[in-house]
Amino acid sequence: MKIIISVNPKAGRSSSRLRAEELFERLQGKGYEAELLTDIDEVADKANRYFSDGELKVLIGVGGDGTAATLVNRTTQGLPITLLSAGTANLISKHFRLGNTPAKLVDIVENGHLVTLDAGKAVSFVEGKSVERIFLVMVSCGLDADIVNGVHSRREERYRSGHKKGAHISYLSYIKPILHSLSTYKYPDMKVEQLIDGNYITVDERTKWGFFFNLNRYGWGLPLAPFAKGNDGKIDHVLFRGGSCICGVFYTVLAQLYVHRFLPNSIAKLGQAEKYRITSASNNTIPFQSDGDPGGCLPIEIEIVKDRFTLLVGKNTKRNA
């Protein structure tokens, strides 16, 4: 019964490493063959091999949503994954009430059960070549992605400079990028199309804020996509037309009150489909992000991938996502 614990060496947060080491020791004490690894190539190779041979109990990622997405992208369908929560937003961990302490996660390993979830696939185009990436929670296009780009740019600068906190991201890491994006972002129009009966149908040509959800989780728990479920075979879209910071605050307040879905179609659009195509409606460069990591720039295609993600959850967690 082999278990692999994957730790990002860039994280730079000593508490995360210490919790990973405690988890390793607790699992070994329970009789599991645990391995604590930091190289993602080694993690993926061993996890896939152990799973193929029927020896893998679970692959544990120490981190947040980006960590989970990276592991799913590097492993085969059906391979069981769970998380020791150590990211910033930790949307997956919060949604499924996963372990944020080594003791709780050991209980999940011993007594939990597996749930099979859909994932999304974002296909972007770089120098004429398509680039595919699986996402688990959501993709966003526009201001939100511009802020994520700024956060990760500063993160890499810290890591290269040998900063004592390494590349760890906290909510405070977002302050400067948010202020910078609010003062520079121009809110260009996006064209959003969804595939229906083999044909792309335009949903909106004036979208300023585009969000595409697999799970109903965003930010601190903002219910932007109230009907999104991780096993319904659909991606849920939330599109806003307002092009200003004030509009963003307005949408956030209404979403927090759970009433944004009643806005007229001339302001906001909510819906779902199996596949989307999102392009810039002008010559402007528009960034997108997936699960909190920079993804590139439009155009992109987004589609559902049925039963792509197998998650180990606690015994009391419902199978309906």
Topology:
Blueprint: E1 2-7, H1 14-29, E2 33-37, H2 40-52, E3 56-63, H3 65-74, E4 80-85, H4 91-96, H5 102-111, E5 113-126, E6 129-135, E7 138-141, H6 143-161, H7 175-184, E8 190-196, E9 199-207, E10 209-213, E11 235-240, H8 245-256, E12 268-273, E13 275-280, E14 287-290, E15 293-297, E16 300-313
Parallel strand pairs: 1-2, 1-3, 3-4, 4-16
Antiparallel strand pairs: 5-6, 5-16, 7-10, 7-14, 8-9, 8-13, 10-11, 11-12, 13-16, 14-15
How many DSSP-defined strands?
Answer: 16
Specify Rg, calculated over alpha carbons.
Answer: 20 Å
Q: Number of helical segments?
A: 8
Question: Which CATH class of the largest domain is shown?
Answer: Mainly Beta
The main sheet comes to: 10 strands, mixed
Sketch the topology as an H/E string, one letter per element: EHEHEHEHHEEEHHEEEEHEEEEE
Termini separation comes to: 27 Å
Per CATH, which architecture of the largest domain?
Sandwich
What sort of overall outline do the alpha carbons produce when their principal axes are compared? Answer: globular
The CATH topology of the largest domain corresponds to Tumour Suppressor Smad4
Indicate the proportion of strand residues: 25-35%
What percent of residues adopt helix (DSSP H or I)? 25-40%
Low-confidence stretches: none
Output the structural class: alpha+beta
| Count of individual domains | 2
Overall mean confidence score, pLDDT = 91
